[in-house]
Amino acid sequence: MLTPMAQATDELIRFVDRWKTRKIVVVGDFMLDRYTYGNAQRLSPDAPVPVLATQRAEDHPGGAANVCLDLLALRCKVACVGVVGQDDTAKRLNAALKKAGCDTSGLIDAPDRPTTVKHNFIGLAQHRHPQKMFRVDEESREPIGAKLTERLLAKARSQLRGAAALCLEDYNKGVLTDGLCRSLIALAKKLGIPVLVDPAAITDYHKYRGATCITPNRTEAALATGTALNGDDEQQRRRNTLKMGKALTRQLSLQALVLTLDKQGALLMEKGKPPVMVPTQARSVYDVTGAGDMVLAMLAGALANGADWRTAVELANTAAGLEVEKFGVVPIELDEVLLSLLRQQHEELGKVRTLDQLLGELAAYRKQGRRIAFTNGCFDILHAGHISYLRAARQAGDLLVIGLNSDRSIKRIKGEGRPVNSEADRVMVLSELESIDYIAVFDEDTPVKLLKAIRPDVLVKGADYRRDQVVGGDFVESYGGRVELVKLVRGRSTTNIIQKISGKSR
């Protein structure tokens, strides 16, 4: 039986494994993030500021454009709707989005406003991690006019055909005006399409009223509700967080609110249900940039695939946690989320699996092109020969599955007095070996049943066998797998150790 925590992780893995491509429309502030990298080894002689000796520069889609890249990484089909300038920056942004796979026909070029650019200067000193030194923004915050609003609505109306969700990414750059937000929300409601909003850092959220969900962080929610965060008083912060969530959910007539809380995870508030704190795994936080975009993208992708709110938030927490471990804005692939969940399940369950559990996890790894190696044995008294053999077996594939003979199986094969160590003890010892990824205990005399279910890419046995003597070898080769024979360490065996202990060895 799985623990409740392991069961929850297993359900997330199965959900991601069933993931389908869905169309998502993103409307908001499209911008370009420019990164200039260099060395910052000295101070300027004419001012107390560091000097950046530039080495290279990179351009990346930012703002709403980054949400689009996040959605593409999550295997969604993406349509962009927004405003850019009639400038070279717009051409580079458009080209980058098209190259990534976005539909950019909904981007309108406006002659009276520039494409927003966030120019980040990144310094490296004494071979340490790169650090952002400062940022220069090129932008217009003027609200768009009525004609541009109508053109955007027309683009959105066209793109929403066949869409599974609408994302509004607001950086308060003048595109998502009150009028446009209200019209987009009404249009999506009429079409039965959920609207998810990553709100701007503003004091009034009423333009988002009627959206399905908004995803502010704690600071943004405090600004919008006029609530104090109360410093280090954790109990008061928790009460204020709940207060903010309830106020926003009620005032904006939301179906759900996802209030992100950094390392504490997220507060999920669903209409008519008690609030739920959804924790996140502890992470090594390197750069929080882009985490909010990743939350919005994962929520949209999960809901478009039929997830309930709890499932969607759990997946969003996982994706955002992976994002903050990286420097800069890096879209998190769906496969990375799946791998993270599989690693989490390993921590919760250890390495032993039933056959059903094992097959589900191996299928997820196979979709990523991982090769499965398999070997089997009693591994009764672990010795140097075993360690050498298992290291070699692990090198034959990307994952190593051990078929472990049960106590009953060993007794039938080896006779009374074996095994020396019980099944539970053998499992515990093997579980500590880095070379082993999974352990499946079998009760039969041979591992043929396991082999036929697992269908490994590589079947590993010791070189004391001939290829035609390897049990299951013909079966593995029948579907294109291979048999690999590994050299054994001479003189090292469980039988020899037992004889030596009993004084029977010479």
Task: Characterise this structure.
With 506 residues, the protein is α/β, with parallel strands linked by helices. It has 2 domains: 4-347, UDP-N-acetylmuramoyl-L-alanine:D-glutamate ligase (3-Layer(aba) Sandwich); 352-502, HUPs (Rossmann fold). The chain is 39% helix and 24% strand. The chain contains 17 helices and 18 strands. The strands form 3 sheets. A 9-stranded mixed β-sheet has the order 5-4-1-8-9-10-11-12-13, sandwiched between helices. Strands 16-15-14-17-18 form a 5-stranded parallel β-sheet. It starts with a helix and ends with a helix. The model has no long low-confidence stretch (mean pLDDT 89).
Topology (SSEs and partners):
Blueprint: H1 4-17, E1 23-28, E2 30-43, E3 50-63, H2 64-73, E4 77-85, H3 88-100, E5 103-110, E6 116-124, E7 131-138, H4 146-159, E8 165-169, H5 178-191, E9 195-198, E10 213-214, H6 218-225, H7 234-251, E11 256-260, E12 266-270, E13 276-278, H8 291-304, H9 309-323, H10 334-349, H11 355-366, E14 372-377, H12 384-395, E15 399-405, H13 407-414, H14 423-431, E16 438-442, H15 448-454, E17 458-462, H16 473-478, E18 482-486, H17 494-502
Parallel strand pairs: 1-4, 1-8, 2-6, 4-5, 8-9, 9-10, 10-11, 14-15, 14-17, 15-16, 17-18
Antiparallel strand pairs: 2-3, 6-7, 11-12, 12-13
